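Recap quiz, item 2
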Amino acid sequence: MKVTEQDVAYVAELANLDLSDEERRAMLRDLNSILDYVDRLNELDTADVPPMAQVSERYGAGQAKQGSERFAYARRADMVAGLRKSLPRAEALANAPDADEEFFRVPKVIER
Amino acid sequence: MDLKSLTIDAARSAVQERRITAVELAEAHYARIQKEDGQIAAFLTLSKERALEQADRMDRMAAEGKPLPPLGGVPVGIKDVMSTRGVRTTAGSRILDRYVPAYDCTAVARMEAAGAVVLGKMNCDEFAMGSSNENSGYHPVRNPRDLSRVPGGSSGGSAAAVAADMAVVTLGSDTGGSIRQPASFCGVVGMMPTYGRVSRYGLIAFASSLDHIGPLAKTVKDAATVLRTIAGRDPMDSTSAEVPVPDYVAELEKPVRGLKLGVPKEYFGDGLDGEVRQAVEAAIGRLQGLGCEIVPLSLPHTPYAIPAYYLIATAEASSNLARYDGVRYGQRARGVKTLSEMYRRSRDQGFGAEVKRRIMLGTYALSAGYYDAYYLKAQKVRTLLTRDFEEAFRKVDAMVTPTSPTAAFRLGEKSNDPLSMYLADIYTVTADLAGIPGISIPCGETQEKLPIGLQILGKHFDEATVLGIAHAYEQAQS
């Protein structure tokens, strides 16, 4: 598969990256080179192979149990402050580039 | 006090017996950092106040004759991808240049609860993406063994600090080899535990199904001590395993005679440097001399590990890095008129080239029309790779391989060709994909006196066997 300039522009939009012209050129070259290399995965017949999203599916506690019961230990009661208390507001806002006492402040969303 | 080869036991007992105070020990390390780190650049932030407060606490315990906890008074460094409450944490990126976390990474909290003195935050490749620490948004780290060369990455700062005795142990993270490879380049011990062995809570995420936290140390025993401290179930990380933590230190002396060690032929092919091959083969010979049985075997899907890794890791990264949008934390671009512009400009200005490249690749691999061909395909190949290991581990107890195809390369040597840099991970990515534990220990040097690493891989949750073999090898060398 060959990546085009349009693909780069489209993906940059999806990824919320504002690339310069030079960055776009370099990206076109690099993506093509890398995707060319990863194409070799098609040498393998994976028709009957299940995908593996998560290593922990294959091991760990509760092997004898089925489905989500295997990970029952990772659940907790649905309650406020279940594992710990929420951050105080001031702390939560402390790293904000722009905030008032209550909210994070951002530019307006302007309709095109 | 001589910091060279200072281990956890030596440091802790010196503080316990009041031959030195923990404060003096921390200050001695800071003096060394002052002297050496100008050239190496292993540290991004020093946390003197926190370190000296902790050291003082340990000194008061020792003065009262109380037994110190297992890492009492031991100076440590933490890779800057792990959050430390009140201490600047950057993940090696300019986008988090002034970020100060409101909470501690669980692994860090456990180290401190065990008495560790956190000296500071270690330089690393930006968001842990890299194999040479040249992708740091700040400065590249230099290899203490040869300043013209890279320390490896992405935990380059963590490895360099231990190699240069600027910390007794450090914590690093490994997603595609980022603990083991720099350990091998710098001549120290680096261990990646089983996925889920150590909580990832507070680890700034790169690829959530591949990230691991682990120790870098001067000896295998120190790595085992740290692992015992940080491992175990954490309710804050639902992927952390409900599996008991053995006393890894006590298990070190278990005899290795009779253990079966697999040697996978795919790790000894064409790309392997001659001197590395020689050193690793000699090391395998020594293990055989210790009574281990060497079993040649094949892990046939090995050549597909790098392509699978670079699709899975980048896809997960593209999702994990979406949070850096200038809203709640991190750098925000100035002079922007709309929200959308704010997102794009902040990210474009804050992220380095490699991070952008990986976000783009990952986004592409997940996008409509390409998801099946790339991401899903890679996940299926991941299953095949894991099955290779499971199959092999029915016949052997562990495997031995080189950690890296070469010793440390020069700064700038691979930075122009991303693909060539990716191929440096060829022997390490497989363990991350399968979730198995692996350690790198020094096993010799090249003609130019560059360290060479031996990698030992084990079964899921069998860190004890991996550490035991590594320890036996290390002891036989001295």
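The mean pLDDT of chain A is 87.
The helical segments of chain A are 5-14, 21-38, 89-93.
End of item.
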